Amino acid sequence: MNPQTRSASAQTPTLRVAFIGCGAMARLHGFALQRVTTSHTVVAAQDCVFAAAAEFVREFGGRPFDAVDTMLAETRPDVVHVCTPAGTHFEPARAAVEAGAHVYVEKPFQETKAQAARLLELAAVHGTKVCAGHQQLCDAAYEGLLDRAATLGRPLYVESRFTFAAALDLDSASPQRVAQQLLDIVPHPLYTLLHAMERLSDSGRTTLEHVRADHTHVHALLHRGAVSGALLVSLRARPIVSSLSVTGTEGSLTADFVRSVLVGSCNPGTSPLEKILNPIVEGWQLQWRMLRSLGRRLFAGGHYPGLAELLQAFYRAIAVGRPSPLSAEHLLDVSRVLEQLSHAVSAALPAPTRAASRPAPGPVAMLTGASGFFGRRIADALAARGFHVRGVGRVPDTRLESVHEWVAADLSLGVPPAALANVDMVVHAAAATSGSWSAHQRHTVDATRRVVQAMAAAGVRRLVYISSISVLEPPRTPWEVQDERTPLAGHAAALGPYTWGKAEAERVVTELSATLGVEVRIVRPAALVDLSAPEMPGVLGRRLYGRWHLGLGRPGLPFALCDVARAAEVVGWYASHFQEAPPVVNLWDPAYPKRRDVLRTYRERGWTGRVVWVPIRALAIAAQSARYAMALLRGGLPSRLAIVGVLKPRRFDARLSCDVLRRAAAERDAVMMPREVGERSPVASGSSREPSGAR
Fold first, then answer.
1. Residue 213 to residues 220, 234, 327, 342, 347: CA-CA distances in angstroms?
2. Collapsing DSSP states into helix, strand and coil, what is residue 388?
3. What pLDDT score does 644 carry?
4. Which CATH class is domain 149-302+326-348?
């Protein structure tokens, strides 16, 4: 039997399944489908980046496509999963419905009520079913809450809380980017709140009475009949919470979606004994039920509780001709209220602080990843040296004073000609920092290839490429000293997706630059930290609880670190002294040679953490054993990961890095960093020449 096929009965026709969008969410769907018993098989997957579709079908089966219409015409699927990014769900879902397929649309189902109504009307015309990614409605905790809601007496109040750790620096990222992430997570707490209010009050319509919002939080009050509702979503509030509480005249219950448990005493809590025992009972419930929930997750292998269950319900409804598990009324309500909340967030966004484009005062440097943690500092360093900085990114941040103009682009799809017009040099700092292997393939490897090819086509010959010191072959002995002659890792995939992507991209740069006539300089920074706001880098340790951190190794082991501002100065120096800059530099600051030196520097700057040190080999053995145990429970083997190679301490020759840092610091002292919009300084004090990066 095909491993992607599960059969409930010999009489049930096998459902032909296709995917549109092959990112991380699609992979979660693929794994969840392995627990769906209705007979099905994956026949196709489409992504605008063909390599992503090809990678998906290698793991889950089917044929890869880069065009939706071609896939639908050639494979004629029964079910289509729409897993494209938020804001792009309508067109692929419409195409699938018009092709006669049932559709499962990731959240947000649709971002406007008009789109939702149109899609549901088309589904009714074509006789197909529609479901949305509202998997928390099938979470065991939520189902238990609805089953026991009658014990709470007359329902009065429903509260949905969701606090989330954004993958952005909330204080430095643009409000527009932060708002996008906020609105991407709002649907989860919203659909649970609206569904609970629908179940608890069958009278009237849910109305949005009040909203207070900005780019980091939403607080809304709703009513439906006699039931009041409250929605609180925040990117700043802590701790991380995802919960739904129902309060009635006889007690309250809370579904905790983080732990997938139900907590509550189901009594009024008015007697002296209830007041004493209720906290004890609820504490016991939380501990015991959390352990059971953890066991279920480990054995089931589900990253998203409720996802496999919702897919099972949807597939079963298709197979036996029942209605979709989510009603059209529910989907319309969620889209209607989400649209209102989106308008409230958008209305609270500040206006751009300056125009998106200004005349170039000097040589033009195209900077990819300009809005990132490192990219922002590189932009400052380039601008201080007299460059006109043209930022390229998927979401431009027009607040950055050092970026004079922006070109919006997904580099994995190509570089717009406007991005390279009149460019003197390129600083390529964009890369994936998290996500699946396909994300690193697209946003690190493919994007780098397209940048170099576009440079050659446009006649731009100078490239400063930002790599990573982690790409080097792991040391064979503890005393091996590595330098710029150390080769790239031969089996970089074993070092994790980030290192693999950076190593492959550096190989792409080296090979293409030699054949296409592009001059390249490579900067390989060590672990980058902001010493003005110290936070332990992941290769040094992890926060465990409160102030306590797990330290990797022991305090006396070597460690390579560089302050992000100093690293950016080096990149700026490379751009302004391109010809004399070394072809490759392993950039680290020997002022902090050992792990204890890093922590001492952190504490001098106000860091108050405490560290428990664990030997790297012991940690690697424990982590690898856990990976194998979990994989065996799920009926497979884990991919190879050289944990010791990833964490092994490295010793680097500091001579070249010290020389480059010294030169960059000397030039920094001769220039003045920009203080206000449009302010620029000469490349060097007493010098009237243009940067050597100019053609």
1. 8, 10, 29, 9, 9
2. strand
3. 64
4. alpha beta
Residues 6+ apart with CB under 8 A from 694: 362, 363, 424
Nearest alpha-carbon partner for 329 in 183, 231, 195, 138: 195
- pLDDT band of 675, cuts 50, 70, 90: very low
d(Cα 343, Cα 360) in Å, to the nearest integer? 36
**The one-letter amino acid at 253:** L
User: pLDDT tens digits for 474-528?
Assistant: 998 888 999 999 999 998 888 888 999 999 999 999 999 999 999 999 999 999 9
E strands, 456-594, are 462-466, 481-482, 519-525, 527-529, 541-545, 548-552, 561-563, 584-587
3-state secondary structure of 423: coil
Q: How many residues does the chain have?
A: 695
| Pair type for strands 241-248 and 251-256 | antiparallel
Q: Where are the domains of the chain?
A: 15-136, 149-302+326-348, 364-526+563-587+651-670
Of the candidates 430, 195, 215, 403, the one whose C-alpha atom is nearest the C-alpha of residue 306 is 195
**Residue 112 to residue 57: CA distance in whole angstroms:** 32
Range with the lowest mean pLDDT among 316-330, 346-360, 602-616? 346-360
Rounded Cα gap, residues 133 and 85, in angstroms = 13
* Domains 15-136 and 364-526+563-587+651-670 fall in the same CATH topology: yes
Q: Which residues pair with 117 in a beta bridge?
A: none
Residues 6+ away with beta carbon under 8 Å from 591? 597
User: Is 624:643 a contact under the CB 8 Å cutoff?
Assistant: yes
Q: Write the pLDDT tens digit of every residue in 375-390.
A: 999 999 999 999 999 9
Owner of token pair 């490239």:
463
CB 160 within 8 Å of CB 192: yes
Residues with Cβ within 8 Å of 570's Cβ and at least 6 positions away in sequence, in order, are 523, 585, 587, 660, 661, 664
Structure tokens, 247: 């309060």
**CB neighbour class for 433 (10 Å; exposed up to 12, middle 13-18, buried from 19):** middle
Half-sphere exposure (CA, 13 Å, Cβ side) for 45?
A: 27
Residue 399's φ and ψ, nearest 5 degrees, are -75, -20
- Asked if residue 307 lies in contact with residue 29, where contact means CB atoms within 8 angstroms, the answer is yes
364-526+563-587+651-670: CATH topology is Rossmann fold (3.40.50)
Closest by Cα among 371, 369, 306 to 136: 306
Instruction: Report which of 78, 131, 133 is spatially closest to residue 101, judged by C-alpha positions.
Output: 78
Q: Are strands 405-408 and 584-587 parallel, antiparallel or unpaired?
A: unpaired
295-327 per-position pLDDT tens digit: 776 666 556 789 999 999 999 999 999 999 999
Place of tokens 């902090």: 592
| Half-sphere exposure (Cβ direction) of 379: Cα atoms closer than 13 Å | 26
CATH number of the domain located at residue range(s) 15-136 in this protein: 3.40.50.720
